[in-house]
């Protein structure tokens, strides 16, 4: 097995770049929402006075 031998790949098309961008943004949004939910769960409920 040779090390460092990589197949050259064609550049991504605009559609592929757009798809990957949407995918990454969706993942980031899901992580942020999860963090927000976890943070809210750790905080005590507001005082109802």
Automatic annotation (TrEMBL):
Region feature Disordered, mapped onto this chain: 27-49
Domain of life: Bacteria
Name under which the protein is recorded: GAF domain-containing protein
Biological source species: Halomonas campaniensis
């Amino acid at each position: 097995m040779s090390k460092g031998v990589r197949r050259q790949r064609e550049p991504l098309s605009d559609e592929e770049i757009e798809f990957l961008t949407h995918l990454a943004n969706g993942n980031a949004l899901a992580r942020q929402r999860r963090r927000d939910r976890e943070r809210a769960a750790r905080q005590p409920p507001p005082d109802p006075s």
